[in-house]
Amino acid sequence: MSAQAPSAVILVRAERFVPNPATAADNAFQTEVPPDQTDEQTSAAALAEMDAVAERLREAGVRVHVFADEDHTRPDSVFPNNWLSTHAGGNVAVYPMYASNRRHERRSDVLEMLKSSYRVQTIVDYSGLEPDGIFLEGTGAMVLDHVSRVAYTAVSHRADTHVLERFCTDFGYEPMAFDAVDAAGVPVYHTNVIACIGTDVAMIALEMIPDEVRREAVRERLSVNGRRVVELTEEQVREFAGNAVELCGRTPEGRRRYIMVMSSRARRSLRADQVAAIEESCEIVDVDIPTIELAGGSVRCMIAGVHLDRRPPGVVPGRTPAVEAIDEDPHTLDGRDVAGDDGPVGA
């Protein structure tokens, strides 16, 4: 199995969804809800899209953990990849978030599920850096190459290089930081809107890295082990073509299959040659999520991959895993909602 493509994911089924006004200023991908659409209609449409993503992934043979969220004060909770990442060897990271109304998206029930269902050794919590104005928004801020152990990061106020260095030291990655801007010179707010790394293919908008030397260094580092680099245009990035993720599923017969999951909007933006390059190594699976994309994120933002070994069914952990707290006790994380394993609560 590829270290890059997890076979299990975490999704959050948020009953209340609206584009977050606290992130609109620096998220150039965020758009307003149509004026004739009520908040209730927006939430209902987004909920249907969340369920469609979960169902599509299950059909592809991916193990899906869905957590219900009934809290109406967490407009972006559908994007858990910004506060959580998991890593081979039983390691979990919890991240500092830029928008104050996103910080209570962190949930102890998610961490407890990981500890009970998977082999977790260490939880490293960086969220205590928030009062110092230092942020690193998980696998939104970083696009991780789990094979070559590189953390590709577009520098912004949501991706501080100091905490990036700390993460890389703690988790054994090489930092690869660079500036990335759009045609108007606006910094890219999250790396995962311009880049996606799979096992044998990577999609990235290299044209949005203005420094030519750094651009070529990123290209070379991505392709050094034979990975094919598919270059995206800024126009395709605006259609969320970069916000995809490779997962490992199963066929109905139980055979392993690698899939590249993206939105239908993203899929439509790709040229035939780009599709052919991606499908040399994995099958494209697309889902239509136009309401969720109003918030400035797409399928990749919705998925927190589980890169951990599963515990055998029925085995209860013998002890609480070691916890390393950095500037904050991870047990203070909010966890008021009830987790649903492999389906919404009450389903």
From TrEMBL:
Compositional bias per record (Basic and acidic residues), positions renumbered to this chain: 328-339
Any matching Pfam family: DDAH_eukar
Segments of this protein annotated with the region Disordered: 320-347
InterPro entries for this protein: Amdntrnsf_FN0238
Protein origin, superkingdom: Bacteria
Protein name (record): Amidinotransferase
Annotated organism of origin: Nocardioides dokdonensis FR1436
